[in-house]
Design a protein that fits this description.
Blueprint lengths: L2 H15 L6 H11 L9 H11 L22 H15 E6 L2 E9 L2 H11 L5 E5 L2 E6 L2 H10 L4 H49 L8 H12 L5 H8 L3 H16 L8 H12 L12
Antiparallel strand pairs: 1-2, 2-4, 3-4
Helix pairs in contact: 1-7, 2-4, 7-10, 7-11, 8-10, 9-10
């Protein structure tokens, strides 16, 4: 991940750790989700959260609560959200790579299928597998990850995450459109070069004058507007695009074959050279 993405993920975790559950049952559920896992030194917000929750009075049922004590089946949705927030803070990770989002829980092997089933029960199905003896529950879609983070209490950091995702998506779409347009222009330029060379050959050996009026008109317009597409030529002449295509194909085919009258061999050789020469690539950088 880039430095900006790492900072955003850290801000998201700090935001979730600062959520203050209002109901005693939610505090008990979050403490159950946190369990007794060791806290890394670079997560002070999580350490403060655990100290705050585990210092709750025993009357609230939060002292020495572990993950095994949480009754998922009988819990309300807000308690489930608090429990999952605790599990994510101690067992979850979020990574961003090239605009792709990956969220996973790394839990004991026997907990993996249970956690996946619980997530599926609340409409958030996730993949589950065993990796190096640990259970891994994952999402790889931005929509599912956003729904989960929103449900467990993420706010401004999630909005920033989604804003970046939309921005990346727009840039990607724009780059694809620009690349497609560039390739289309390259094809038009290559075809126009072949057609102009063929028209020059036929004009030099006199065969262009023998063509029907419509074909000559199309050849003249191609010479006048070499950069025009077939659709633009057709619109200019007021005829179907297919008719323009057939006329230009006819001219290229005639230029490939020797005429019965004396012809400009050098001109035909130049046409062959142009016909086989690939169009130069267009250099266009990605959208910033």
């Amino acid at each position: 991940m880039s430095g900006a993405d790492r900072d955003l993920v850290a801000a998201l975790r700090a935001e979730l750790a600062s959520v203050e559950p209002f109901r005693p049952c939610d505090r008990a559920a979050e403490a159950a989700g946190l369990g007794t896992a060791a806290i890394r030194g670079d997560r002070p917000a999580l350490a403060r959260l655990m100290v705050r929750l585990l210092r709750e009075d025993d009357s609230h049922g939060t002292r020495r609560v572990t993950g095994s004590a949480f009754d998922w089946d009988r819990a309300a949705d807000h308690c489930r959200a608090a429990y999952l927030r605790g599990r994510f803070l101690v067992r979850g990770s979020l990574s961003i790579t090239a605009g792709r989002y990956h969220l996973e829980f790394v839990v004991p092997a026997d907990e993996g299928p249970v956690l996946a089933a619980r997530l599926a029960a609340v409409g958030l199905p996730a993949g589950a597998r065993v990796r190096r003896g640990r259970g891994v529950v994952t999402w790889k879609g931005g929509e599912a990850i956003g729904t989960f983070l929103r449900w467990i209490g993420a706010g401004p950091s999630l909005l920033e995450l989604e804003s970046r995702q939309v921005s990346r998506s727009v840039r990607g779409d724009l780059n694809r459109l620009l690349n497609a347009e560039s390739a289309n222009l390259d094809r038009i330029a290559a075809a126009a070069a072949r057609q102009l060379a063929a028209i020059a050959v036929l004009d030099a050996d006199g065969r262009l004058a023998d063509q029907p009026d419509a074909v000559r008109a199309i050849a003249a317009l191609r010479r006048a507007i070499p950069e025009a597409s077939l659709a633009e030529l057709a619109a200019e002449l007021g005829i179907p695009r297919g008719r323009v295509q057939r006329a230009l194909d006819r001219l290229e085919t005639l230029a490939l074959h020797a005429a019965d009258v004396p012809s400009d061999r050098h001109g035909r050789a130049e046409w062959h050279a142009r016909a086989r020469r690939p169009a130069p690539p267009r250099e266009r950088g990605p959208v910033a």
